[in-house]
Amino acid sequence: MSLQVTVVAAEHAVWSGEARRVVAKTTEGEIGILPGHEPVLGIVAGGQVRIVTADGEHLTAQADGGFLSVENDRVTVVADQAELV
Question: Can you say where in the cell this protein is located (predicted)?
Answer without folding.
Answer: Cell membrane
